[in-house]
Specification:
Layout: H1 5-20, E1 25-26, H2 27-34, H3 38-47, E2 63-65, E3 69-72, H4 86-100, H5 107-124, H6 140-154, E4 156-164, E5 169-183, E6 185-192, E7 197-202, E8 206-215, E9 239-244, H7 251-254, E10 259-262, E11 268-273, H8 281-287, E12 291-295, H9 297-316
Antiparallel strand pairs: 1-3, 2-3, 4-5, 4-8, 5-6, 6-7, 9-11, 9-12, 10-11
Helix pairs in contact: 2-3, 4-5, 8-9
Length: 317
Amino acid sequence: MAANAIDQTRRMLSLVTYLRERPGAHVADVARAFGITEDELISDLDVLPMCGTSFRGGDLLDIDTDGDRIWWHNPDDVAAPLRLAADEATALLVAARAVATLPGLRESDREALLRATAKLEAAAGEAAGASSRLSVTFESEGGVFAEVDRAISERRRLWVRYYSPARDELTEREVDPIRLFAVGHTYMEAWCRLSEARRTFRLDRVAEIRILDEPAAPPELELRDLSEGLVHPSADDPEVVVEVGPGGRWVAEYYPHDRADELEDGGLRITLRTPEPASLRRLALRLGSDGRIVAPAALADSARTAAAAALAAYGSG
């Protein structure tokens, strides 16, 4: 079972100290010391180089591995005591207070966070003043994240009402959560008791969530490789052709595609594959005048019908 986000953060903080004291440590030895798999350790090592002593991108941890041993090339460069600028202290304090209000956060973690916040306020002095005039309110996804994180930690089953854009419907289902991850959006990977299969749920599409008393018992599954993104279209999936104007070029950045040909107006003709072509109707509606579905013809007609129905609804109002 994958660790929850808070446990992973604790582990990674300890990992920094551990690696500083053991240059050239073997991957297998470190994984064994932390009670995780070598793949989980490599995943942590992929994140650590994005961390450091500055919010502005300087002094990042220069840690890498050849698959057998782990090397930290600049431990002395990041060893100096941290000095927070006023904007950095403000950002930390606002974020800490916001996280402390999340539903589902374990009380021990909430208390630890509040103690750390108090220490930071004392250290920041006058620089902390601005933070008291700012606040952050999480949207529903924050509460969903906390409930999923808690369910993973406690190994409990979840009941969710989930919106499926491909079918344009809400379904109720029980799931055994496996892990949380982010690829553009935040997702939960879980074993779905409705379909009896592994499924991925986008948190901002969860309309309602509840932790159940039943223990989560997902089957032993190999975690999916997300290094190349969430979606891996198959050569057998139906082909869809979308033409976008200059304002819709972002589609080529967010959707895996076979090719993207330049158009004379500065747009693109994008050819992609998807197991659920109907899900692209919403993309067409979102693009508006910046794009259209060209093929297959049935999908293009369906998108035009959906657009006409939407305009008619506005007109009748």
